[in-house]
Write a structure and sequence with these properties.
The chain has 417 residues and is an alpha+beta fold. Strands 5-6-7-2-13-12 form a six-stranded mixed β-sheet, sandwiched between helices. Strand 6 and strand 7 form a beta hairpin. Helix 2 crosses helix 4, helix 8 packs across helix 9 and helix 8 crosses helix 11. The protein is globular.
Length: 417
Amino acid sequence: MTQPRTLSTPQEAILEAGISNPDPAAYTMVNAIIVDGVPAKALRQAATDTAARHDALHWILNLDDRYRISASAGLGPALVPAEETDLRSLDPADAIATVEAWMATQRAAAYDLWGSGPRIRFALFHLPVTPAGPSTVCALMTHHLYTDEHALQLLWTEIVRRAGTLPISAPTSPDLRYSRWAEASTSAVAATSARTAAEAVAQRCQAHETRPYPEYLERSPAPSGYGQQARALGPVDTADVSARLSVGPAAVYVAAVAQAVAEETGHGRIVLHMPMSLRRTAAEAGIVGCFVTSALLPIRVEPTGDRLVQHCQQALDFASRHAHARPGLLSRSVGRPQISLAIERPATTRRLGPVTWSSFAAPNAGPKHPLSLQLSASATGPGRLRASWTSATLTQEQAVDLLERTTDHLNRLTAKG
């Protein structure tokens, strides 16, 4: 027996984007942490118990004879499988390489949204024992329809607290808060607000170019699947420029990317697409589910330096206020996304009671847009700038040039003195 569920507007947008994306694994999510100081048995139980209580992680999609999509959830505890692999006999480097290979394979696998099997799965890898005790990689596989990056951190924190027998402030199981939010996001009032927001965004974007990226380039690339290029970043400290201009770190990152793109394409008015969360309250910040949508940032790159950074902060504020605009309405007036920028959280090590955990490097993913950029930066440690692109978007040399330009602008914007 099942209960009906209402897909939220971010979920509807992901379904639409997934259908049009040639990569069937574009929205497969694989994430992992390395946990020290807790037995693997306790970690496994904590993982399955945590995931089982979140209703939003177990919705099944249904397609009727008129090709209308609906969702439903089962009654009672959800089944959450967890497999285990013992790597304790391996050299530590070989053990990590084994986990990386497994994650890359899972990340490249198409996710069956229409099947009736578990929506989320866990895998535990027993690493060689350290002087501090047992060390385990806990990995999960799911689809972006069910979670976002913030929700993953909520899950990992709850799992670690359960495994370490630490207090947990959690709603009654099952947690139905995302289901209630999803219903509200598709109400008549929300739909009217989304249309108004889409009109405002479309009007702001009218003076900006949204044509395919290669149309600006002197040398058109030849189709050859898709490409990836990464560049390591040193510490990027935005504290001085943020305080001086009253802007957030994201404005600095966006300014560097926008100026690099403008230089390479020769066009000073561009539209960046950025993932933004529709979580608006402290209560929503604690809900597991998918709240992320693709917001549009129309940017004019004619000013440079401080003025460009301030302009990018204004663009970010505008995008945040109008992030609830329906992507389907925007695609008809603005066009499909061409360039996206995701600002990712740098890897950190955390400790709760006797348990220490850190992020495990996620496998590279293919591009969700013709040109996808991911930037992870930290004031105290290393970061990464990565580009991935679909066929006929740009060449490897052009990608390297774009990353070098972006890095140079980051260094200039954050230079002290």
